[in-house]
Amino acid sequence: MEVTEKLKLLEENVKLLQEIETQTTVEDLRKNRRLEWEVRYGLFESIQIVIDIACKLSSEYNLGNPKTYRACIELLSRYEYLDETIAKKVIGMIGLRNLLVHEYVKIDAERLYRFLERLEDFIDFVKAIKAYI
Question: Which of 21, 64, 83, 130 could join 116 via S-S bond, C-beta 3.0 to 4.6 A?
Answer without folding.
Answer: 21
